[in-house]
Design brief:
There is one protein chain. With 242 residues, the protein is an alpha/beta fold. It has helices spanning 11-17, 24-37, 53-57, 99-110, 122-126, 151-165, 176-179, 182-186, 222-232; strands at 44-45, 65-69, 129-133, 138-139, 170-174, 192-196. The chain has a four-stranded parallel β-sheet. The N and C termini lie far apart (38 Å).
Length: 242
């Protein structure tokens, strides 16, 4: 049985979180998660060893872009520990392929990058795109079921410390939930903050800043804007499709 401890978090990110691990909030998260993981009749997504996969694949020193998700996919076989990403063996034509990824693909094509061969975004993570959910676990079949376990203090502190420590980051805030983190990010210097509606379902067209314009012929332009910003600040652009 997975015990869940501070050792699960990569050392560089532990350093960024600093005194958080001496806080009551960390004790609450540990207690709550251990309780969930010890319930043999319930399954948690992703697998516990992948709770911090986003931090493991994108070391602190490499972060250039941050894409915030809400909580992991709660459908069987989808959650990997990377926001929006799914295993590469799920066909883009499959009913299991999430609508958010379909619309991300549409945006990439409209911005001139082509389309993803599959929904596995690990190559983004390895290039410095932190694919961070704001809750890092969920109960199978129950969306947002772990939102109140205690993830918020950890993730909020990480977002705020990251923005303060690293200037010139790109933040993609898709949907109202991600945009609640705006004040944490604005504490940092010279951050590019890109906001739009969430790419999932019909919500993609909503708000005055849609992810895709109604009709699906114009995107929010976030992927182009991110690369332009990175080049302007002497960073390599992200290869979004390849």
């Amino acid at each position: 049985m997975h015990s869940f401890s501070v050792a699960d978090i990569p050392e560089d990110w532990r350093g960024l979180l600093g005194e958080y691990f001496e806080s009551p909030e960390w004790q609450v998260l540990q207690t709550n998660l251990r309780s969930e993981l010890n319930q043999v009749d319930e399954k948690v997504c992703p697998e516990p060893q992948n709770f911090f996969k986003a931090l493991a694949l994108t070391p602190l020193a490499k972060v250039k872009v941050v894409i915030l998700g809400q909580d992991p996919y709660h459908s069987p076989g989808l959650a990997q520990g990377l926001a929006f990403s799914i295993p590469g063996n799920i066909s883009t034509n499959s009913r299991a392929f999430p609508s958010s990824l379909r619309n991300i693909n549409k945006a990439l094509a409209l911005e001139g990058f082509g389309t993803l061969p599959n929904g596995d975004l690990q190559s983004w993570a390895e290039q410095g795109v932190l694919l961070l959910n704001t809750a890092l676990s969920v109960k199978l079949g129950e969306a947002a079921s772990h939102a109140n376990l205690g993830w918020k203090p950890l993730v909020d502190r990480l977002i705020n410390a990251l923005a303060i420590q690293k200037p010139h980051l790109v933040w993609m805030l898709w949907g109202g939930h991600a945009q609640t983190k705006l004040s944490l990010i604005e504490s940092g210097a010279n951050q590019l903050i890109l906001q739009s509606s969430h790419p999932s379902g019909l919500g993609v067209y909503k708000t005055d800043r849609p992810f895709l314009e109604p009709g699906g012929k114009v995107s929010c332009g976030h992927f182009v804007k991110a690369n332009e910003w990175l080049v302007r600040h002497q960073e390599l652009p992200i290869c979004w499709v390849g």
